[in-house]
Fold this protein.
Amino acid sequence: MATPLDNIRVLDFSTLLPGPMATLFLAEAGAEVIKIERPGRGEEMRSYVPKWGEDSANFAMLNRGKKSLALNLKEAGERERLIPLLKEADILVEQFRPGVMERLGFGYDDVAAINPGIIYCSITGYGQSGPKAARAGHDLNYIGDSGLLALACGTPDTPVIPPALIADIAGGTYPAVFNILLALRERDRTGKGAHIDIAMCDNLFPFMYWALAEGQVTGDWPGNGDSLVTGGSCRYRLYPTRDNRFVAAAPLEQKFWDIFSEAIGLDPALRDDGKDPQATTDAVARIIAAHDADHWQTVFEKADCCCSVVQSLQDAVSDPHFKSRGVLDRTVENASGERTMALPVPVVPQYRTSQETSRAPSLGADNDMMPRIGASEITEKPQ
């Protein structure tokens, strides 16, 4: 079955999470993805725990269906071996700090001179320019610098770290894929390639649309956990149950709030949460805390009021809903033939490859696809 990215070749110089997940999405849509790794250890994710066969389970999840070339990019002869692939590539993804690829001789201008149609995607924390461009950082730093973390970070006694790597995935992976596809469309029209500058920190601001609107228009900027969708309302909160689980209550609209109030037996005098918000919140909390999670699961399945019991991840992967939609059907296999659930990707079924099971490549497994060349076709630059 043909897929949208058939015959598209991607050279992936990235490591860890944002770039490898982006190229996984492209591979699932049919692109040929070739990882460029350092000899010996390969990219860092291979050594992570838990181990699953030769490499880590994380590496297998993020790199299935790709190829691997092991090259020492600090050696001119090894770099030269990449030239034929660069000439044929459609997309290059890199995740080094600004200036590193230039020092290696593979900056955008260098590669575009070889292949003017290349779509060259650089993923960094702070972008290719600006005062913070060269600064080291991780997800927690990026969500902290953007103001996102301050909207719901717990208390000094119990600071809360978000359970997802928001900047890496939402600020890095998704914008990279989105803009690569836009660049492919533009190349179809003009024949020209592009350098795409993906700054994970920049791309977090869309998640704060409501806070930006509120702060700019009213002058009253949202703080830590004090707004409608960060815990400042009784209509959008986590309420502990008697057995130390949580109800995720989100009956924001009045019709859902009315159904919710009736379902839990909230005192009619407290149902107008505008009169004394704290009194209403406290009353709801007492009611929810009086029963176990299973009780509330039954109540809210009947009430249908945007309320549910928080599931564990283990429960979620067994949820009949996700099973019925085939979300978790694909598998990844290691070199020993063991299989486990593959990471689901947001590519709709009709645009995905038909391959139900795939492997991550062993280090350097595809080095034989590069011819050894003698003449230098790219000038070595000072380190």
In short: The chain has two domains: 9-205+328-369, 246-309. Confidence is low (pLDDT under 50) at residues 372-383.
